[in-house]
């Protein structure tokens, strides 16, 4: 009995071996893959096209900014010390609300771009930093004799803060001081509706709610070096492109996008947040 069983197992082993040999001689069917080459050979091909972001050739150059995730044009303007409208114009953006991560934007005025120069509200005209001279608008010779000539001060070596004559934007006390990581400005206490005033002469480059975490926000540009930001307002009283004077009421204090009524006030030097307490007069 055991002999018959062994012979059966042997025959099955031989049959299995023959089947495997037969299978090994059968060619496997593969999907043909061909490359399209310079000789013009035809066949299936897949072309991977990587589209570079606009302005990629300027990445890393001075005066240019590479868009990061969560960036908006308003935030880029605040971080670079420029007006969002100027950035839109310099880059010929059709839709300023549509920018792409990796896109490289010009954030410094082109040579000869006079429109980007801030307009001061007072009688003194501040010239762009780095310009050794300034010329007033030409006037007829007959009028020159009877019209007082306005003094045009030279930019100070410290960036012009001495000329701005800063004042406090709110009457309350400081409840949170500057911290480069946690707080990019100072928080000033107050009651809803308290006046918020311009800390220096300048031009409104932003007025709205487009920057998350700031609520109703106003950004003023004072010269080619300094911006100030006024956040969490209850209401905004000035519009973009409007010139304002130091001490002019520009908003009313509130709690928009904040846990309490307060004014969040920032001073930006060439886009970098600096401690406002180093600029404000002693109380």
Q: What can you tell me about this protein's structure?
A:
The chain is α+β, with helices and mostly antiparallel strands. Among the domains are: 58 residues, LysM domain (Membrane-bound Lytic Murein Transglycosylase D, Chain A, Roll); 115 residues, Glucose Permease (Domain IIA). 17% of the residues lie in helices and 20% in strands. Strands 3, 4, 5, 6, 7, 8, 9, 10, 11 and 12 form a ten-stranded antiparallel beta sheet that branches. A two-stranded antiparallel sheet has the order 1-2. A hairpin with a 7-residue loop joins β6 and β7. The N and C termini lie far apart (114 Å). About 20% of the residues have low confidence.
Uncertain spans: 19-36, 120-159
- CATH fold type of the domain at 164-278: Glucose Permease (Domain IIA)
Give the N-terminus to C-terminus distance in angstroms.
114 Å
- The class by helix and strand makeup works out as alpha+beta
| Number of helical segments with 4 or more residues | 5
- Helical content class: 10-25%
What do we call the CATH homologous superfamily of the domain at 164-278? Glucose Permease (Domain IIA)
Topology as a string of helices (H) and strands (E): HEHHEHHEEEEEEEEEE
Q: Radius of gyration in whole Å, from Cα?
A: 34 Å
CATH class of the domain at 164-278: Mainly Beta
- Portion of residues in beta strands equals 15-25%
Largest sheet: 10 strands, antiparallel
CATH architecture descriptor name of the domain at 164-278: Distorted Sandwich
- Mean pLDDT equals 77
What best-fitting shape do the alpha-carbon axes yield? globular
Q: How many beta-strand runs?
A: 12
């Amino acid at each position: 009995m055991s002999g018959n069983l062994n012979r059966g197992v042997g025959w099955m082993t031989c049959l299995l071996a023959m089947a495997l040999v037969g299978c090994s001689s059968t060619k496997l069917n593969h999907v043909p893959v061909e490359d399209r080459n310079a000789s013009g050979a035809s066949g299936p091909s897949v072309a991977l096209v990587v589209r570079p972001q606009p302005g990629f050739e300027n990445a890393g150059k001075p005066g240019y900014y590479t868009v990061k995730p969560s960036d908006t044009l308003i935030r880029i303007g605040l971080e670079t010390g420029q007006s969002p409208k100027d950035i839109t114009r310099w880059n010929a953006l059709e839709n300023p609300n549509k920018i792409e991560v990796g896109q490289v934007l010009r954030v410094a005025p082109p040579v000869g771009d006079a429109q980007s120069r801030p307009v001061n509200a007072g009688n003194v005209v501040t010239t762009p930093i780095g310009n050794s001279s300034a010329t007033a608008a030409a006037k007829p010779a007959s009028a020159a004799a009877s019209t007082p000539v306005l003094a045009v001060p030279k930019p100070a070596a410290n960036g012009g803060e001495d000329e701005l004559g800063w004042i406090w934007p709110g009457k309350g006390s400081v409840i949170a001081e500057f911290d480069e990581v946690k707080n990019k400005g100072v928080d000033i206490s107050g009651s809803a509706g308290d006046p918020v005033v311009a800390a220096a002469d300048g031009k409104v480059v932003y007025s709205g709610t487009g920057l998350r975490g700031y609520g109703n926000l106003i950004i003023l540009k004072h010269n080619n070096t300094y911006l100030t930001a006024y956040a969490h307002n209850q209401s905004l009283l000035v519009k973009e492109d409007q010139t304002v004077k130091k001490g002019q009421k520009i908003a009313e204090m509130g709690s928009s996008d904040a846990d309490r009524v307060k004014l969040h006030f920032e001073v930006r030097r060439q886009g970098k947040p600096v401690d406002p307490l180093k600029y404000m007069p002693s109380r």
